[in-house]
Amino acid sequence: MPRPRKPPRLFLRRARAGRHATWVILDAGREIGTGCGEGEREKAERALARYIAEKYRVPDTGGQLDRTLIADVINVYVREHAPTVKRPDDILNCAGPLLDWWGEKTLADIRATTCDQYVSWRTRQPRKKRRAGLVSQGTARHELAVLSAAIGYYHQNYGPLQSLPAIKLPPATPPREDYWLTRKEVAERLWVARKMPQCRHVIRALLIGVYTGTRPGAARSLRWIPSTTGGWFDLETETLYRRAQNEPENNKRKPKARIHRRLLPWLRRWYHADMVIGVNRRFVENGRRVERRVKTTYVIHYHGKPIGKLRRSWASVAIAAGHAKQIGVDKNGQPIWQIPDGPHICRHTAATWLMQAGVDKREAAGYLGMSEKTLEEVYGHHHPDFQRNAASADGRRRNRP
């Protein structure tokens, strides 16, 4: 019986005379260049996912697990389902590692032991995007969840399969119950951010986050006027609309909320600066750099331009405030810092502060766009009424009427 042909896969072509090491795609004895150097593994994985999506047609296997390659299942999911989601890159980033390990296997090879082997293999690999350390178990769990979703999609659209393989997921990371900022820590970060011109946009992200509990991605998309790409603040009615116009509802709920009384004066000041006075923005005209004052509709911005990520500026503020820990130095003698949190801590802080203030849990859940169950399980122990009756019980029997 002839050996089955291997699916397309990445291969690092070592440096040769006059050429740097590059990633290539091997497919049926051919090499297809990706244009990615040795340090661009993630881009190469995306190129492989695109190549698979463009080249392959779904083979008819009659629903037999031992004839259905996992590479074909992932190909279908990447090509057909990924373009329909809000964050297709998330699926593409997971497809690369999944193809590396599962690509030559069939659905019949999926068992609890092979899932454990994948987690063990994945957690020995280094992280990417300039992050030190190894891949976490949570990342491996997420990738296996994507594989499970891909199998379900294949079964629904190209099946039915004889049976659905069960993906064994590693245990989920428990929520960090005491992951929040104190008012003193927030004040310290605001103080140092004021002194750092390149990080002043962190002030807005921090205050909006801790007083509204809006997720970082939705907060960065907020505008001063109604928009189809993000939510907006209506200062006349003192209402925050987290969802863009005509945006469908999904699992990440974005309900409208009343603007916090402590945040409202800040917003009025920022609105005047952005929409009345305008911000200084640099342009290039006729080969010369010019600076012009323009209005911007983005609430959180850098010189009028929207903010993509808050990684570097957020880390700089945390370091300057003394909230980061130095864990070593790099080869150039520069300190390596361990940042204790990210922008999402603002949502945890908002929920914690609401519980500490004794706000009704149903009202707080609606204000944050969070289920009452999650609020109770993760933040409920901060509420003044947490287990009050149990803690005051003395064992005495009350007289019945």
Number of strands: 12
Please state how the strands of the largest beta sheet are arranged side by side: 1-2-3
- 3D shape: globular
Distance between the termini: 86 Å
Spell out the helices and strands N to C. EEEHHHHHHHHEEEHEEEEHEEHHHH
| Rounded average pLDDT | 86
Structural class: alpha+beta
The percentage of residues in β strands lies in 5-15%
Q: Over all CA atoms, what is the radius of gyration?
A: 26 Å
Q: How many helix segments?
A: 14
**Portion in helices:** 40-55%
The major beta sheet can be summarized as:
3 strands, antiparallel
Give start-end ranges of low-pLDDT stretches: none
Walk me through what this model shows.
It contains 14 helices and twelve strands. Among the domains are: 9-158, no CATH class; 184-310, no CATH class. The longest helix has 22 residues, at 137-158. The strands form five sheets. A three-stranded antiparallel β-sheet has the order 1-2-3. The protein has a three-stranded antiparallel β-sheet with strand order 4-5-6. Helix 1 (41-55) crosses helix 2 and helix 3 crosses helix 5. It is of the alpha+beta class and 401 residues long.
